[in-house]
Amino acid sequence: MDRTLFSPAMIETFLSCKKAFDSAFVRDTENPKLANAHYLCKKFLLKAIAEINRGKITTVAQMQKYIGQNWPGDKFGPDNNEKVQEKHIESFRFIYRALTNYVSKPYKPKDGQIIGVNLKVRARVPHTKIYLEDTFDAIAWHKESKQLEFIDYHINPLKPFDLAWPKASFLVKHFLAERLHSRFPFQKLLFTFVQVQSESVTPNFVELDKNIVQLHWADLLKTINEMKASQNISYECKPSCKLCQLLDNSAVNETQEANHPLSRSA
């Protein structure tokens, strides 16, 4: 792991469970163990939506062809496993319905233009050797209102959160937005979370006060410095930790069945 480069996923994993962070991002970076059905579906969904946002897929027929040619069926596991087969079919049906619905009713920023799709942005924190990086599903520019909009696509409903205590992902995105300020002199940042379901597309809009970002920025840097110093530390965790269970090969199948997002009601 490059000890100077950090992403929101790394930071939030470290804050949730230091042992899981160590397993996922430090000691086993070449063999990630989280490639379950949810991960595969989310990854495929984002790739397909990126093609829609680029204007390469505009009709249901084109989307059906794209799904048929690119669906990662071989990555779900052995065909002779009945549970794997069942999960594969369930996942395929969900993604098929969700994407054919989305291509007919895509999220379009009001009075805005998509300026970036699946865009990776990296920036160095001033006066440090720390680099922060994130990939934006889509970015829209509202020229008239001078507003920059970060669009994030997801499957599950958003969990409740307190904007007075923003997650690391908000703080990092807010920081990286400054890299785009010279090209797009925004006065306001808007975070849009688009939930893509089989029969609906639901956007949720969030604005984050710049003063709140500044208030929590020092704590974020403190956490990152702690992460940098953690490579020679061996962490222990509670047996009931879900993140650790997901990172244990023997527990993946059991936890998938209980926590699979495609089988839960929205």
Q: What topology does this entry show?
A:
Elements lengths: L4 E2 L1 H9 L1 H10 L9 H17 L6 H11 L11 H23 L8 E12 L6 E12 L4 E8 L13 H10 L10 E9 L4 E6 L3 H19 L13 H5 L5 H8 L7
Parallel strand pairs: 1-3, 4-5
Antiparallel strand pairs: 2-3, 3-4, 5-6
Short summary:
The protein is α/β, with parallel strands linked by helices and 266 residues long. The chain is built from nine helices and six strands; from the N terminus they run E-H-H-H-H-H-E-E-E-H-E-E-H-H-H.
Give your account of this protein's structure.
This protein is an alpha/beta fold and 266 residues long. The protein has nine helices and six strands, in the order βαααααβββαββααα. It has helices spanning 8-16, 18-27, 37-53, 60-70, 82-104, 168-177, 210-228, 242-246, 252-259; strands spanning 5-6, 113-124, 131-142, 147-154, 188-196, 201-206. Strands 1, 2, 3, 4, 5 and 6 form a six-stranded mixed beta sheet that branches. Helix 4 (60-70) packs antiparallel against helix 5. The radius of gyration is 20 Å and the shape is globular. The two termini are 36 Å apart. The model is unreliable at 29-34 and 249-266 (pLDDT under 50).
Low-confidence stretches: 29-34, 249-266
Calculate the mean pLDDT score and round it: 84
> How would you describe the shape?
globular
Q: How large, in whole angstroms, is the Cα Rg?
A: 20 Å
Number-wise, the strands total 6
